[in-house]
């Protein structure tokens, strides 16, 4: 196994022994580990405390950049939609995972698989209801302010 994935899996196993979920991630650039993370949901009241999110946050905070386009993530588990979106938003172009969301679901960690399945449905049929509330006439429009500043 690739040394970076091996490290991610080791982090995940250690996290389980420490009371957490089996997820670890390492962020790599030019064959060097830049940041690591493990799922910290057992320690924090932060639903975004996933291994990949924490590795990305650490790197961006230390490097003072939003751009991780030259970085690669190695995650012990296939990223959930939130982490995958963070990877997209950071400009990342590739990542690797070990356990799939299907495997995670088989071990009782099925949230990612359920969300991915929900995303395939039309908005109106999803489990989470999201409805638009349009601006009222004459109301300040933040999008217009933004557009005019460009
Ligand atoms: Zn995640």
TrEMBL record:
> Where is the stretch described as Disordered?
131-150
Top-level taxon of the source organism: Bacteria
Q: What class of enzyme is it?
A: hydrolase
List, for all copies, the residue spans of the domain called CMP/dCMP-type deaminase: 1-112
Q: Which PROSITE patterns match?
A: CYT_DCMP_DEAMINASES_1, CYT_DCMP_DEAMINASES_2
| Alphabetical list of CDD domains matching this protein | nucleoside_deaminase (cd01285)
Going by the UniProt record, its keywords in alphabetical order are: Hydrolase, Metal-binding, Zinc
Q: What is this protein called?
A: Nucleoside deaminase
> Which species?
Carnobacterium antarcticum
């Amino acid at each position: 196994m690739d040394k970076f994935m091996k490290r991610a899996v080791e982090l995940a196993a250690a996290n389980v022994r420490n009371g957490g979920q089996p997820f670890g991630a390492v962020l790599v650039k030019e064959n060097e580990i830049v940041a690591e993370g493990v799922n910290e949901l057992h320690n924090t009241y932060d639903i975004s405390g996933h291994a990949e999110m924490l590795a990305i946050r650490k790197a961006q905070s230390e490097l003072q950049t939003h751009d991780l386009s030259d970085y690669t993530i190695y995650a012990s588990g296939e990223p959930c939609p939130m982490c995958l979106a963070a990877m997209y938003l950071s400009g990342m172009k590739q990542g690797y995972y070990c356990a799939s969301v299907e495997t995670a679901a088989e071990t009782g960690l099925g949230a990612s698989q359920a969300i991915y399945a929900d995303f395939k449905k039309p908005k109106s049929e999803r489990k989470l209801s999201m409805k638009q509330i349009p601006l009222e006439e004459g109301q300040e429009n933040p999008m217009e302010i933004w557009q005019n500043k460009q």
